[in-house]
Structure formats: structure tokens, C-alpha cells
Amino acid sequence: MPISVAQYAAFTASGMVFFYFLIRAFSRRAPETGTKSDRRSRAGIIIQSVGIGFAGFGSIKVTLASLSPAGLAGTAAVLLLMGGAIALFATSSRELGRNWSLVARMRSDHELVRTGPYSHVRHPIYLGMLLFLLALAIALGHWLQLIIAIPLFIVGTAIRTRLEDGLLEQQFGETFRDYRSSTPALIPKL
């Protein structure tokens, strides 16, 4: 699908902001002591990454005028999706604080976070990553790649959420089960 320079530039600029917050979350991690981790979550990370990579794979046709209706719609879609991705990642990683980690793990002083985005969905960072994937596909005009990218991403996310929920249930028992029954995993109730 053809794209405009503006939608490509919008994704590039907002992508830098997204990665700023990712690097910031990595740099704020506290030393890990007394952790219990599940390394199987790395398989989910790899599958999610392949899904995201698939959304970005292919040729790019920059032929739309930036101010054409299709060019404006593409740019607006990219900005809305990336704005959501950035907001979800930034607020979620801030709410998690020292609990944030790339792999599924539980600290000895782990807290069950139910505030901010976590009051609406249990895994808002993965929702933000899904919005990122969609914005990437739109920014590059890779609509057809979504046929493979979304299912791959969902499989990877299912692996990660199942493992993370299992660790949280082991740590917090009935409190987590109540949270799980009242709060959807990925898509908020409307």
C-alpha cells in the first residue's frame, strides 16, 4: 500500500519517543535480589518480536501526497496508535516501578500493581506493543503483513501473560485471582 512521507516521519519521530521510554524503563530497574523467574517467557518475547518484525518487513512505496485525504488519514492513524503505545508503555512502566522486567519474574518484595492502566487491563504494556505493531504496519503500508504479524504477536503475548499470571497467582493467591476475574488481560472493557 502506498504511504506518505508524513506518515513515515510521524512513525519515526514517535518511535524515537517510544524507545526513549523503553530505555528509561531499562535504566531505572532496581538490582534483582531474591527473584523467581520463568525463562520460558523468552520464547514469548521472541515470537512477539518476530510478529512486530513481520509488520515491518517488505517494500515501502512513498507515493501518497502528505496532504491528500489518504496521506492525512495514514498520518493521523499512526499518531493515534503511537500516542496510545507511548502513553501505555510510559504510564505502565512507571506504575510498575521496580517490578518492571523484560522476562517474567517475581521479586521477593514484589507488589501487585492495580493502579493506573493496570486498573483497566492486567497487561497494558502488551496492549501498547500491539498498538506499536499496528502503527508500524500502517506507517510502512504493510497491511497484508498483519495477516501473519498479529497472530504471531498474539501467540507470543499469550505465552507471556500465562507465565506472568501464573507467577502472580503463586505470589498473591486469592488477591490475584480476584484481580484476574475483574480485569481483562489485554483489551479493556468498553
Explain the overall architecture.
The protein is mainly alpha-helical. It has a single domain, classed as Up-down Bundle (Four Helix Bundle (Hemerythrin (Met), subunit A)). The chain is 63% helix and 7% strand. The chain has helices at residues 5-27, 41-56, 69-96, 124-140, 146-172, 174-182, and strands spanning 2-4, 36-38, 61-64, 104-106. The strands form two sheets. The protein has a two-stranded parallel sheet. It has a two-stranded antiparallel sheet with strand order 2-4. Helix 1 packs parallel to helix 3 (69-96), helix 2 packs parallel to helix 4 and helix 2 (41-56) packs antiparallel against helix 5. The protein is elongated, with a radius of gyration of 18 Å.
Secondary structure: elements and pairs:
Layout: E1 2-4, H1 5-27, E2 36-38, H2 41-56, E3 61-64, H3 69-96, E4 104-106, H4 124-140, H5 146-172, H6 174-182
- Looking at the structure, what is the overall shape? elongated
Percent range of helical residues: 55-70%
CATH class type: Mainly Alpha
Low-confidence runs of at least 5 consecutive residues: none
Mean pLDDT: 92
Q: What letter string, H or E per element, gives the SSE order?
A: EHEHEHEHHH
Strand content: 5-15%
